[in-house]
Amino acid sequence: MVTHLSIKNYILIDALEIPFSEGLTTITGETGAGKSILLGAMDLILGERADKKVLLDKDSKCIIEATFYIKGYDLKDLFAEFDLDYDDQSIIRRELLPSGKSRAFVNDTPVKLNVLKALGNKLINIHSQFETLTLNRSDFQMTVLDDFAHNQPLFQKYSSAFDVYLKSENYLKELTEKEKSAKAEQDYYKFLFEELENANLEAGEKEKLEREYTQLTHTEDIRQALYFSVEGLSRSETNILEVLKEINSRLAEVSDYHKLIKPIQQRVESSHIELEDIAAELENMESDIEYSPQQLEYIQERLDVIYALEQKHHVEGTEALLELKNKFDRKLQDIGTLEEDIETQKNIVQTNKEKAEKHALELHQKREKKAPEVAEAVQNVLSKLNMSDSKVVVDVQKQEELNEYGLSRVEILFSANKGHSPGAIKNVASGGELSRLMLAIKSILSDKNILPTIIFDEIDSGVSGNAAVKVGHIMHKMSQTMQVIAITHLPQIAAKGKDHLKVYKYDHNGRTRTDIKKLNPQERVEETALMISGEHQNENALKTARQLIG
Fold first, then answer.
1. Which fold has domain 1-128+458-518?
2. Global pTM?
3. I need a labelling partner for 57 at 20 to 30 A (CA). Which of 109, 232, 307, 509 fits?
4. Residue 316 phi/psi, 5° resolution?
């Protein structure tokens, strides 16, 4: 329940502190006094979007803060879900800045508006005159039945199962589309793979062939260089090896006569040995060099294949081409396994669907069982509102296909007059009947301890006389199990409040302001009398007011 509401710098309000207590609180005031301002402020606390136009002082921020006592309403998990500190006395604050930006806090932790909305849905139900239009919506009628039957835990199980089923079905659709697209490309990938496969490429082959190609196309140059080198080193009459041999011999003969000659002679000897080895290698290479037109033609053909594939696929090197071949091979394998994946996913979808259908069927059976009780309970309340001839039917039909609500289609049928068959609410109910029907529904749900607080904004529209007294009785009964705040223009309802608050306007420095006060017993009598006759001092009205207040 809401225990306190603080409003600063909002529309016509400078600063306002409103305490609320348990039970029924009635709020009255002249038309235009600002009762709707209070609801607007409460809407902001519950996550509605704001406009800086609501700032009374355009240079200062607006602060709206509400304190809620929430012990016993199983909200700890919701607080944990949003990573909020839970407290039995929790505070929600909304700030609107002159810049147009807004900030929201729950127990001093900054939150986004979706968090306020989620909490607000668990804390307060604001019922305005226009909310009666929701009676025509099938989802609202379904919710009424589920709330009455305490189906929410089961509905949550179904919702989770249905969500899993939908996700698995969507994944199946993705796989099917992927297979369709893949099969359209299968022949193309197969062609590319086979083209690379038939090329019989080897890693490093291009570089090896290019080296061999260079060697073959320069065979004659290589031969001449090798011939000249071998001739100079070992074959000519004045070859280098013979000359070095002679130099080495001469230096060796005199090396004992001069200490610096010995190391030089040893170097010459080493050079002779090294050049002798080089000459042998060059001679072997010379004998191995052969020119093969056939091999050159083969290499040219292989390189042409590799170059063409490189250009086609915009890559370089046989390693890149081999990686492409493996890539195409994997794609073909993936296409082959997609059919298996689809069959597996079909089984998963069917299993998930059966789980969802099991919960949906159980939910439907509970709805069918509770539907007559809902209809009877609403009808009993309507009979207390001078609608004893009304007839209510909660029609529950089983559907073939699963939807977000299960397998049920729920429709509340209504007739206000004897002898008339119940029909769709939107076709048969007047504005006043809609108000009383909605009140009856809210009344039967109040016993289910679903919400801590309900706010009625002139739900008594179209109601008067004895019916208004009964509306007051029903609200008072509701307030025994939940907090009820009723904005009303009827004295019969205002008199039923445990607390009576009055909204009024006043002038401040030439500007209109709105304020609210809690009436003492005498002020309550006078306010109620004023609502009855329009005069504070009318003795008959004062007497009637005292009787109404009791």
1. Rossmann fold (3.40.50)
2. 0.66
3. 109
4. -135, 130
